[in-house]
């Protein structure tokens, strides 16, 4: 006999510590104008109720040094910069070089803080609403904790910066309506990123080789084309306003997940023409830098003899122009 009572079943989410990501803390009264001249995005977004922004650090030639998520700490005049663990030393040196005489402290705090991600896994990658707690304990109970939606795509889940003195169970209190479980190795964050077509770190964005627009920085809300000057801006702005983007990172699906391929392996057509370079793969999903105009009518593609399929990410805006004429037409229509 029914009693009319309903039983609430907690939705399970996955939690992972991102051990390949590291944190740099910068403190000082001038950190906003300092970073504004060094990153591709507009730091002023962090003054407008944003807890985090995605941005890229470039060299003077417009090539990427590293990608970063910049968090606004609850401590006054304090930001955390998240980057690849292999980029920490270079990025600290880069920041100190351009600090000049500003009273800004720059320190690696990877020994004191960790980055976690809470996500819904591969199954709901294309349909999930943001994996962000609707009801949470107030993070301000500890000013060292930063909890925010991934600033690139909502499908990537929630980013959590937490002191190492806390266990992962601390994060559970921010998700009272969910059960947080360790990630399944076959359903993890890297596989999710690759399925979505999102690069991250030095493997996907080779330092001094990758360009921000080819890496989809514009589509991932990581480049401002309205802010003032910053290091490496000239080529980025010129490419956006007058050029055609001929290559972009795109997700690929590999028919044989056991196929072992090195980064930069060629992706070829049935006629043997190279149309892309592998940047990374896991669990049958991969990321490749593809020549957009070459893949439209390329037929079947292969990666080291294994058939692979390239797809256009569902979150990309509009159709991609293939020629300068199409790009000019698209510009006049926006």
In words, what does this structure look like?
This protein has 334 residues and is an alpha+beta fold. It folds into two domains: 12-184, Gyrase A, domain 2, CATH 3.30.1360.120; 195-333, Elongation Factor Tu (Ef-tu), domain 3 (Beta Barrel), CATH 2.40.30.160. It has helices at residues 31-36, 88-99, 169-172, 189-196, 201-204, 233-242, 292-295, 324-333, and strands at residues 11-17, 21-27, 52-58, 64-72, 78-84, 105-108, 113-119, 146-149, 158-163, 178-182, 247-254, 266-269, 274-282, 285-291, 301-303, 306-310. Strand 8 (146-149) and strand 9 (158-163) form a beta hairpin. The model is unreliable at 135-140 and 321-334 (pLDDT under 50). Its main location: mitochondrion. It comes from Hermetia illucens. InterPro entries: CAF17_C, TrmE/GcvT-like, YgfZ/GCV_T_CS, YgfZ/GcvT. It is found in: Mitochondrion. Keywords: Mitochondrion, Transit peptide.
Key phrases:
2 domains; 334 residues; Elongation Factor Tu (Ef-tu), domain 3; Gyrase A, domain 2; alpha+beta; five-stranded mixed β-sheet; 8 helices; six-stranded antiparallel β-barrel
- In whole angstroms, the N-to-C terminal distance is 61 Å
Mind telling me the CATH superfamily name of the largest domain? Probable tRNA modification gtpase trme, domain 1
Report the biggest beta sheet as strand number plus sense, adding barrel if it closes.
6 strands, antiparallel, barrel
Q: How many helices in DSSP terms?
A: 8
Shape: globular
CATH architecture of the largest domain: 2-Layer Sandwich
CATH class of the largest domain: Alpha Beta
Radius of gyration: 21 Å
Strand order of the largest sheet: 11-14-13-12-15-16
Oligomer designation: single chain
In the predicted model, the low-confidence regions spanning at least 5 consecutive residues are: 135-140, 321-334
Give the overall average pLDDT: 87
Count of the domains: 2
Give, in order, the helices and strands.
EEHEEEHEEEEHEHHHEEEEHEEH
Helix content percent band: 10-25%
CATH topology of the largest domain: Gyrase A, domain 2
């Amino acid at each position: 006999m029914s009693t009319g009572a309903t039983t609430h079943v907690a939705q399970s989410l996955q939690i992972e510590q991102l051990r390949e990501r590291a944190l740099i803390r910068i403190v000082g009264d001038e950190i906003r104008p300092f970073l504004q001249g060094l990153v591709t995005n507009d730091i002023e977004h962090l003054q407008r109720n944003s807890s985090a922004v995605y941005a890229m650090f470039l060299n003077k030639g417009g090539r990427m040094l590293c990608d970063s998520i910049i968090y606004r700490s609850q401590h006054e005049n304090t930001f955390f910069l998240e980057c690849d663990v292999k980029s920490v030393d270079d990025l600290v040196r880069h920041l100190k070089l351009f600090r000049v005489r500003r009273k800004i402290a720059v320190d690696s705090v990877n020994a004191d803080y960790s980055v976690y991600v809470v996500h819904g896994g591969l199954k709901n990658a294309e349909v999930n609403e943001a994996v962000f707690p609707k009801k949470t304990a107030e993070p301000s109970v500890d000013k060292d904790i930063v909890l925010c939606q991934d600033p690139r795509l909502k499908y990537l889940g929630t980013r959590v910066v937490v002191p190492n003195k806390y266990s992962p169970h601390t994060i559970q209190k921010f998700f009272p309506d969910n059960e947080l479980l360790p990630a399944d190795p076959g359903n993890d964050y890297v596989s999710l990123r690759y399925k979505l077509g999102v690069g991250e770190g030095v493997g996907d964005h080779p330092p001094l080789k990758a360009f921000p627009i080819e890496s989809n920085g514009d589509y991932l809300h990581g480049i401002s084309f309205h802010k003032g000057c910053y290091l490496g801006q000239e080529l980025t702005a010129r490419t956006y306003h007058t050029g055609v983007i001929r290559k972009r990172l795109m997700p690929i699906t590999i028919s044989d997940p056991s196929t072992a391929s090195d980064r930069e392996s060629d992706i070829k057509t049935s006629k043997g023409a190279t149309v892309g370079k592998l940047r990374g793969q896991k669990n049958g999903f991969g990321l490749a830098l593809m020549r957009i105009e070459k893949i439209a009518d390329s037929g079947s593609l292969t990666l080291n003899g294994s058939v692979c399929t390239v797809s256009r990410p569902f979150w990309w805006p509009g159709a991609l122009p293939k020629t300068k004429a199409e790009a000019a037409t698209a510009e006049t229509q926006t």
